[in-house]
Amino acid sequence: MYIIPAIDILDGKVVRLTEGNYNQKTVYDVSIAEMIETYRSNGTEFIHIIDLNGAKGDFSNQASLFEVIKKTDMKVQYGGGIRTIKQVTDLLDAGIQRVIVGTQAITNPDFLQELSTEVGKKYDYANRIVIAIDVLDEVIKYSGWMESSPIKLMDYVDKCLQLGFFRFLCTDINKDGKLGGAAMDLYRKLLEHSPFIKLIASGGVSSMADIEELATLDIRSVVVGKAIYENRITIEEIKEWNLKQMTSL
Fold it and tell me: What is the count of structural domains for the chain?
């Protein structure tokens, strides 16, 4: 299980939200470029970048963000407001390793089928696309966590699997930004239901002890953000942990 450091961007600044609430944000006095370079210079292979403005349909961050991204040789897992097939293909063409889709996949019944067909013409879509599942009390949330879906969680996972998608980024909104521990029960349920999914955990990690607990499950990677910024987990600890991992991202 690899640790993937997170950078969330809002209004051009590095931030962390609590429970996805844009009014409960912590702004960090560090630039995007500085954070990326810190991770790169310490041997991090993958980085997770979310455009929080993009999640609400505002892409004012994107040009400057991509200027920074294209200067690094790190693999980037990117999300935030990806609503069209063209956006996905443009991002992959630009060198983004993995594109995260959420809202459109939930609200448009045909989107995932079209995505597999169109992206599959050029890319290994099953490995290059990550399905975001943002959950509040096992209810799927979307549009920056502001809307609720009537689709049951496990039914949605089954639908995605039937279309060939198996890489999921699951965030328990109750845990996000609180540094209170990861959603072990939720992840356990998902893996019991679908043992072969490639699950990426997100939300709540506060220490290396939480990382060790997550590693007892068959989770492929974990996104860590606030714990790094609050010095609960150091870059050196991430580097040491990742070097020991033998399974593929």
Answer: 1
Checking 61-67 for CB contacts under 8 A at 24+ apart, the result is 61/9, 61/10, 61/11, 61/12, 64/12, 65/9, 65/32, 66/94
Instruction: Please provide the distance, in angstroms rounded to a whole number, between the alpha carbons at the two ends of the chain.
Output: 8
Annotated catalytic residue 93:
no
Domain CATH number, residue 171: 3.20.20.70
Q: Which of 220, 212, 213 is nearest to 241 (CA)?
A: 212
pLDDT tens-digit series, residues 16-65? 887 677 888 889 999 999 999 999 988 898 999 999 998 888 888 888 88
Domain coverage including residue 97: 2-248
Note the pTM of the prediction, 2 decimals. Answer: 0.92
The single residue of 134, 172, 176, 210 carrying the catalytic annotation is 134
8 noted as active-site residue: yes
